[in-house]
Amino acid sequence: MSTLQHTGLRLRVSEKFGGTVQGEGPSTGVPACFIRLALCNLICSPCDTPYTWDTTRFDLRKEAHYENVEELLAWALDQPEDLVVVTGGEPLIQMAGLTELVKGLRAAGRTVEIETNGTIAPSEALVAAGPYFNVSPKLSRFGAAMPETRRLVPDVLRAFVTTGRSRFKFVVSEAAELAEIAALEAAYALTDISVMPEGTDPEVILAGMRTLEGPVRERGYRLGTRLHVLLWGDERGR
Ligand code: SF4
């Protein structure tokens, strides 16, 4: 049952699913349910969830629906998994509804991770609600159609570091990109860095991990993976 008073707030949702595991970042392998919010403020070339935002290729009237915060909260609390991952798209676009959702989840004792591209600063209320932030700044390869100032916002990266609840996660296609990560680490004092290979095919992920293992270890970063891809390929809703 919802622990939240009716707020009247709605969130635009792409999909939600339980009975799975967190596939990326420090909690990889932990049982989890997912709420994927629609809309994004970036236009990354290698985006693997364009159906959440790209109206040139997808009909968002079909791909995304509105749901009251209370309905979403009730759904999440009905899932057996403690960990609730709110992802996107870019969830922080819908800050007010997201904050109320996280408040309700935390009040019920759930662990919450928010996946974000790190370009929108979390509000004080959202930070106070107590989620973890899995921040995934986009490297230059993602930004063919975007200026650097759009994909990297210094004050916002500092704001995430200041929360003390942020972990940083980078998707790379080759080891040469580690130098770019190191420059961001030095500039913004990023901590808890995971590096994972790009790909939506298990063989590509494994090959990428084999290539990255040595260089990532030498930098002192965590070698990440995309566990959901290894298990289920690019199947949606897993
Ligand atoms: S920030 Fe994420 S969801 Fe948004 S376009 Fe880039 S990869 Fe896709």
TrEMBL record:
<keyword id="KW-0004">4Fe-4S</keyword>
<keyword id="KW-0460">Magnesium</keyword>
<dbReference type="GO" id="GO:0000287">
    <property type="term" value="F:magnesium ion binding"/>
</dbReference>
<dbReference type="InterPro" id="IPR058240">
    <property type="entry name" value="rSAM_sf"/>
</dbReference>
<feature type="binding site">
    <location>
        <position position="89"/>
    </location>
    <ligand>
        <name>S-adenosyl-L-methionine</name>
    </ligand>
</feature>
<feature type="binding site">
    <location>
        <position position="40"/>
    </location>
    <ligand>
        <name>[4Fe-4S] cluster</name>
    </ligand>
</feature>
<keyword id="KW-0408">Iron</keyword>
<dbReference type="GO" id="GO:1904047">
    <property type="term" value="F:S-adenosyl-L-methionine binding"/>
</dbReference>
<dbReference type="GO" id="GO:0008616">
    <property type="term" value="P:tRNA queuosine(34) biosynthetic process"/>
</dbReference>
<feature type="binding site">
    <location>
        <position position="36"/>
    </location>
    <ligand>
        <name>substrate</name>
    </ligand>
</feature>
<comment type="function">
    <text>Catalyzes the complex heterocyclic radical-mediated conversion of 6-carboxy-5,6,7,8-tetrahydropterin (CPH4) to 7-carboxy-7-deazaguanine (CDG), a step common to the biosynthetic pathways of all 7-deazapurine-containing compounds.</text>
</comment>
<feature type="binding site">
    <location>
        <position position="44"/>
    </location>
    <ligand>
        <name>[4Fe-4S] cluster</name>
    </ligand>
</feature>
<keyword id="KW-0456">Lyase</keyword>
<comment type="pathway">
    <text>Purine metabolism; 7-cyano-7-deazaguanine biosynthesis.</text>
</comment>
<feature type="binding site">
    <location>
        <position position="49"/>
    </location>
    <ligand>
        <name>Mg(2+)</name>
    </ligand>
</feature>
<keyword id="KW-0671">Queuosine biosynthesis</keyword>
<protein>
    <recommendedName>
        <fullName>7-carboxy-7-deazaguanine synthase</fullName>
        <ecNumber>4.3.99.3</ecNumber>
    </recommendedName>
</protein>
<feature type="binding site">
    <location>
        <begin position="21"/>
        <end position="23"/>
    </location>
    <ligand>
        <name>substrate</name>
    </ligand>
</feature>
<feature type="binding site">
    <location>
        <position position="47"/>
    </location>
    <ligand>
        <name>[4Fe-4S] cluster</name>
    </ligand>
</feature>
<dbReference type="Pfam" id="PF04055">
    <property type="entry name" value="Radical_SAM"/>
</dbReference>
<feature type="binding site">
    <location>
        <position position="87"/>
    </location>
    <ligand>
        <name>substrate</name>
    </ligand>
</feature>
<dbReference type="InterPro" id="IPR007197">
    <property type="entry name" value="rSAM"/>
</dbReference>
<dbReference type="GO" id="GO:0016840">
    <property type="term" value="F:carbon-nitrogen lyase activity"/>
</dbReference>
<dbReference type="InterPro" id="IPR024924">
    <property type="entry name" value="7-CO-7-deazaguanine_synth-like"/>
</dbReference>
<keyword id="KW-0949">S-adenosyl-L-methionine</keyword>
<dbReference type="GO" id="GO:0051539">
    <property type="term" value="F:4 iron, 4 sulfur cluster binding"/>
</dbReference>
<comment type="similarity">
    <text>Belongs to the radical SAM superfamily. 7-carboxy-7-deazaguanine synthase family.</text>
</comment>
<comment type="subunit">
    <text>Homodimer.</text>
</comment>
<feature type="binding site">
    <location>
        <begin position="136"/>
        <end position="138"/>
    </location>
    <ligand>
        <name>S-adenosyl-L-methionine</name>
    </ligand>
</feature>
<dbReference type="InterPro" id="IPR013785">
    <property type="entry name" value="Aldolase_TIM"/>
</dbReference>
<keyword id="KW-0411">Iron-sulfur</keyword>
<feature type="domain" description="Radical SAM core">
    <location>
        <begin position="27"/>
        <end position="234"/>
    </location>
</feature>
<keyword id="KW-0479">Metal-binding</keyword>
